[in-house]
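During the second year of the project, the team shifted from modelling isolated chains to modelling whole assemblies. The rationale, set out in the original proposal, was that interfaces cannot be judged from single-chain predictions alone. As a representative example for this report, we include one of the complexes processed in the last quarter. Its constituent sequences, exactly as entered into the pipeline, are reproduced here:
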Amino acid sequence: MQSDDSRIRLEHVSERFPSGLHALEDVNLQVAAGEFVSLLGPSGCGKSTVLRLVAGLDFPSSGRVDAPALRREAAATTAFVFQDPTLMPWASVFDNVYLPLRLAGRTRKEVAGPVADVLALVGLDDFARSFPSELSGGMRMRASIARALVTQPQVLLMDEPFAALDEVTRNRLNLDLLAWWSARPLSVLFVTHSVFEAAFLSQRVLVMGVRPGHVVTELRIEQPYPRVASFRGSTVFQQACRELSAAIESVQQGAPA
Amino acid sequence: MMRLLSWLTIPMLLLGWELLVRIAGIPPYTLPAPSLVAQTLWANFPSLAASWWFTLKITFGALALACAGGIAIAAVFALWRPVEVALFPLAIMLQVTPLVAIAPLILIYVQSTTAALLLCAWVVAFFPILSSTLLGLRAADPNLRDLFRLYGATRWQRLRLLLAPSALPYFLGGLKISGGLSLIGAVTAEMVAGVAGRETGLASRILEASFRTETPKMFAALTLLVITGVLIFWLFGALSRRLLGRWHASTLP
Amino acid sequence: MNHPRWLTLAVILLWMPLVIAADRVTFATNWKAEAAHGGFYQAIADGTYARYGLDVQILQGGPQVNTAALLPAGRVDFLLAGNLLHCFDNVKNGLPTIAVAAMFQKDPQALLAHPGQGYEDFAALKNAPVAFIAKDGQFSWWQWLKVAHGFRDEALRPYTYNLGPFLANRKAIQQGYSFAEPIYAEKQGQFKPVVHLLADHGFSTYSTLIETRVDTVNSRPDLVQRFVDASIEGWVNYLYGDRRAANALMIRDNPEMTVAEIEAAVALMRAQGIVDSGESLTNGVGAMNQARIRDFHAQMVRAGLYKQGDVDPARVATLQFVNRKVGLELKSRLTAR
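Output from the structure prediction step:
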């Protein structure tokens, strides 16, 4: 159990890379346990950098990052889903999903159950033996999410995971993602540049600006879960989208086209 | 129709050659006709086959050593960059120095002639494997690398589960090249050595035939060499398709 | 000048044939220029070939070069054949070539060994653990050594014309020309090697033969005769006369030679009777006889290098251009001084 409610916390975080790139300046944000938070903003606003800091893949130049990955309380507390499904092309779907457990030292026999479960969850139970090249884009993304969920992480980081998919698939995956999230104790930090997606999925949306990346504004989406497809037609949704779009507009004014 | 034509190319060339020799009356010691070469090959097959076997042994022996050496060194280079910076220039030096220049030296310093031949063939064969395997080890998807880091993979796990499979297509590409080079190295080294006696390869037989002006026999031995080269190419192509078949762009339809 | 113009023209016209008449001839040797080619270079250097109306170009051979193929291909007019085995091979394979003179009465092919290792006796050589023999030797006279004298392939190592391995291993033996390698070995290894001439143990071939195409013999016998005679005179002058110009020419072609080495070689050539001994003493340098060719052929058949009937010994050489006592008078003049 956590002593502190906030699972993820960034305090006055700045990030300057050796190449000279000033990615983030004085970023403060929090994600509470079990919260679904989106980061929304144009290219170059440092959204991906925030995810990498939370994952412990990079370290801040100044400020403090507090997240399970950095606390090392348990192995594989944090999962990452990239925009590209990032599957190992030489391995079957089963072996891809098995990877995090294998790296932790578990044998194939031990994990047969959990892997089958998570594959069923994402709807790929018939494809355990298939290879990534044999799957469609949407199915590969499901496999990537299955791999993320197989270790039962506390934190799920997603970097524009559905941006490369067509709208129909994306909408379906949005619904499925909410279903998977709500079924377990999981904090999600979701990066997107789609206003609609951010509004549909999240409880809170953080809008970020560029040069250097910083949090401009925050919006709460007051709509209980489970959210269904018809939510997209509601006034709450449309109002949220208008406000978010306006926020993005003002951010873009400062940035070159 | 096109497929039939492509199969006919070589037979047509051979027929053309045969006709040229007959019509122009070219003497057999200048350019023997394919029919004469085939006859000579058949008549001398037992002894040519023994030499063929020896050349094959050297070629594949050197290739195996080149794989072992190339992969091991590439792995070391991939995992420890300072070592690569220090030693890669040596590897390049070995590659660019012409074999015909090094071979006599190797023959002087190494006692056993067979070991010297293996070493000569190894020198030409190992660099493509080293360089392509190293490239492949580096070519691992950066996102996958991050993923491995995220899940706390050890260096050894990284090598075994990520770098090695990533490098496989590149390694196989290098292997196709090295297969042919190993054969050339074995033949060149033997040409320089001019080894005669019990254990001799096809190169010695070519030399011997050349010195005794037995041109049809020279061509017969050359034919065996050509067949070997083609077989090697085909063999590694098939191996590539087998290993990469289901997943790599180079072998998918 | 009171000569009428037509007289000048007539004089020019008379001289022109003589100038144009110098036949261009290419002669390919089997190695880089060395003492074993001395007589040929002499005939160029002292104008003997020119006096016979020949403009001779020498094309050197070398360690990686096989000049033998140039003769049947028509690229050279005459070829230096190291020994009769080469001529036998040509006849066996139906090449239209023939030997017209034998400049060496004895083949200088020899085996060298370190002194004090028991190799003073020829019979001990076959037990040497290591024998450095070069490519062409491996495929020819080494086969004869195996059959006639019991040498074994186990000892065989490639000789790449580098003395290093032989000098480093006291138990090793290697091949060489009797008047060449021993000199280099002594210079580099600081010892006098034991030298066994194969000719003294049954290898009775002629050496340094002049070979040409059969159709040249048939269509231009006069050219062949002139080349043979001039070459004979060249050898006589080289061995017994002033050879400095020839040596200079050889060094220009092969800068690795030194005058000292060449002179030492010539001394050995004379002492061993390589060029001038036996028949040549009465019939002139270049002498040949069919009986000796037949006998050598029979020996090689016994040694398994050829099958009976592969080679017709009568077609190997023609005697029409030699045994005419050419050069004998020149020699007695030179040696009388």
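The mean pLDDT of chain A is 87. Helices of chain A lie at 47-55, 68-71, 93-103, 108-122, 137-149, 167-182, 195-201, 235-254.
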